[in-house]
Amino acid sequence: MQLITAAFLSALLVRTSTAADDAEFVTAAPHAGSATLDLYPPSGTSVDSALFPPESEVGFPGPTPTGVQPAAIQTAAAYPYNHGPTNQFPLVAPQPHGQDTTSDEFDITKYWGNLSPWYSLSSADYGLPNASPLAPEGCSVTQVHLLYRHGARYPTSGAAPAQFAEKIANATKQGLEVSGDLAFLSDWTYKLGGELLTPFGRSQEFLLGVQHRQLYGHLLNNFTEAGTIPVFRTESQDRMVKTTQNFAAGFFGVPEYLDQVSIEILVETPGVNNSGAPYEICTNSNVESRGGIGNTMASKFAKNVFNATIERLNSQVSGLKFTTTDILAMLQLCSYETNALGYSAFCGLFSQEDFLNYEYFYDIAFYYNNGPGSPVSAAQGKGYLQEFVARFTGEYPEAWSALNQTFDNSSTYFPLNQSIYADATHEVVVLDTLTAFNLTALFNGPPLSITENKTENSFVASKLVPFATHFTAQVLECSAYQPTKQIRFLVNDAVIPVVDSYPGCPSDPHGLCSFDNVVSVLKDRIDEIDFDYDCFANYTTEEGVDYNGRAPRS
Q1: Nearest to 7, CA basis, from 158, 205, 191, 185
Q2: How remote is the C-alpha of 523 from its chain's centroid?
Q3: pTM for this entry
Q4: Pairing between strand 177-178 and 317-318?
Q5: Mean pLDDT of 114-140
Q6: Per-residue pLDDT for 482 more than 50?
Q7: What would the DSSP string read from start to end of 418-475?
């Protein structure tokens, strides 16, 4: 995974010392910057089922009649959008530094790029002001395909937050002093684990499962009629497995999910084909001048936009000098600590302008690493594109991408007749997939500038790749349309129009297009994405170009 790597941030790292007026400074405690952790459960402990028997042994369950499956996607009078503070409960996010308490509130959590919690987007932002995720009048949802990201997690091991903690710990040994806004650093320790889901991340996936059961529960009746249960897929990383388990627990209940859905775990490791982790076999994905070009461009943008904040914070510290790398690391600590611990003192260090620049830093990185500005994004998303089309058509996919044909040619592991599909993956792969699907309304406008945010493009990272982001394809039967079988796409509850990128699709207020026409368009897209060339050829890319996710050819 090439996104904002530790190597990228550490390249900016500068460890120097500075003298400052220490009249109001506090000397950092010896443990400042050190890593701390808690262990639970205690070693050697487990539930004694003989003393605490399960429900099945205790008995006396009371009446247990079932009702009908919920189908809110086509019965509700209004859609349950994930708006307001509910999307981040129970996190506490303060107002930015210097914000007037009488001014309009600024929600900093919506400016954390891929570290933001997901929230409902507006279809109007993409050109469909009257569209709703609810089935249009006269339509019924017959099939749903879901691709979703894991929930909030700890940082990647050894990434910028841990490097910043090490810098504080090293400075403390030499005599670190802090004051003002930075006074909390005198006793601060690094409390984050590595890569696991946080409690909030678990709740995001559980609630996502609940939401989809409420919306699409009626589709389970198809499984009952067929005498089978769904297969949900994920990758082998711990957070990916726990993501799918929590989603399934929300969808089916606890402990029901243990025997009401089959969870397929695909190995994620270098050299192994996996549509959920294509960067493990796409060589150019990990070449900085190709798949990582967004990192270089984002660093150029960040180089000078935080100067005022660096100057302000450097005036409050003695024993080290903060750099752009440190500012980005502290902004990440704001995001990660809030998601993991519920609150972070780092958030209050930064102004509204800082958070806007922090978001745009991620916008640039993702647009050029995994969006249309990348030469490998369509190739990396081709696996899921092929798998979606295979499920649409009932035909097994060809081995033209990172998909694993051993599993994808099996009715056991890749069933073609489900009415509900749910695949868990990483945010970079979700964005790769959106690019492969050629959903250009998500990237409407000129390529992103690295000098300033000109707000000319519809792409915003925190909208498309936040924690628990999800991409949905609804297949519908619509009596008022000809042909009656229709399809449309949604991202985080926003209906995405395809009229400008899918030939033969009309302008439709609900984002609908003929199912057969969309399948034909997507088959053509599969044919035009050259996985081998984009992932393995030797070519040169340029900054600031919309490649439509495909490698240039000279």
Answers
A1: 158
A2: 26
A3: 0.93
A4: antiparallel
A5: 97
A6: yes
A7: -SEEEEEE-HHHHHHHHHHTT-GGGG-SSPPPSS-----SS--HHHHSSBT-EEEEEE
